[in-house]
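During the reporting period the student researcher (J.K.) took over the structure-prediction task from the postdoctoral fellow and processed the backlog of single-chain submissions. One of the processed entries is reproduced below for the supervisory committee.
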Amino acid sequence: MRILIIPGFNGSGPDHWQTLWEKQYGGERVSQRDWTRPDVEEWVASLDAALAEDAEQVVLVAHSLGCLTVAHWTQTHPGNTARVRGALLVAPPDVESAANIPASMRKFALNRQIQLPFSSILVGSENDPFMTATAAKRLSRLWGCRFVNAGAVGHINTDSKHGPWPQGEALLRDLLKAKTSSS
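J.K. obtained the following structure tokens:
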């Protein structure tokens, strides 16, 4: 099973749980030309290119703006989603409402709501500075995801002291197990 890591704004540094998982599980990272000035069309194209590299089934592991990249990709490339076995979407930002969102990220707002066509878990936090738990739960319903409230754990990144993230690993295993048993 191929694991595709989709970082958000600024990428995921060397101590970020996504980078650790990339090494631990042999995951592949979706690269972006510019991590600090995100462009929705470029980021979606990079994700689509990474998915087109081989025909193996894939699990998407997205953080922050990477979650919105996955949603946009699903919206703009609906014919390419069959190989996705599931997605773990962690701490998406509320690009429409959060006060501290850079202007370039606001372009990632979805112009219509979607139902993701694959199994997915959306993880939110009670004190994420970029998305309230209430907004994350509402987004999970709109996208058709199982919602997990991770507690008061910030943005679930290195700033919030998340290097290894055992709770996330358990969620990824649950996602894979649920999909395998329903296949």
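The committee noted the following: The radius of gyration is 15 Å.
J.K. will present the remaining backlog at the next meeting.
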